[in-house]
Amino acid sequence: MKVVAIAALLACLAVLTICGGGSPSSINPNGQVSGNWQIALQRTPKSSKTLSGFILQLSDSVTGGLMLSGSCAGVGSATGTMTGQNISLDATVTGQALNLGGTVSSDGSTMTGTYTILASGCGNSETGTWSATRVKPLSGSFHGTLTSTRPSGIVSDVSGMITQGPNNGQSSALLSGTVTSTDSSCFSSAMLSGVISGTTVVLTITAADGSALGQFFNVTASADGTSLAGKYSFSNQLQLPPGAPCRFGDVGTASITLP
Asked: Residues 67-80: pLDDT tens digits?
């Protein structure tokens, strides 16, 4: 359910961003903590949540957008400060006031600390520890395979290009690109569009005429930006003759490597 909720939020955010959900500011996108972050919240002893999103830094000030998973999933803006290697972030998501305080590693690739959530209207108040990993941008050529479960075991090779849009301090960034295949029964070339937040990726597969062919979903990117793994689904193509491959669509798993 967490994955479904995050994917739905990302799909909505893609529409909002395309329709003008913010523009780049004068904040330095190359600051020490500027970037895309995957954040794990761990409450003692067992409960856990995740945050994801983009942070921008200007001098000792930080801003951004964060997406919270779980039963009270939602999106909120964040503000905070950097003092040396110490960071403090405050955000409000679906009636929950979040504060994260901690330290940034010397190379700016990880953060750790403690958090508090003061809930009002959704969820419960809690405290715990958090850790964060910066996720490198998804940009460049890729190749990979689509392994069908309908029929089982049929493998198609794919290749293409993907580009990640700028860090605008929102909870997600746009993805665009192209994908081709010489042996897929469902397409030979298509356009890709979607969003990334933390390590979670959603991509729509579109034909040249703009019609939707399918999507990549439940996709997780590696923190180093070199791989994607998840599922794919192609829609029914009932215009094809009976018995034609992909007339009733296709589903399976996707494995992508960059470059």
From this structure: 998 878 999 999 99
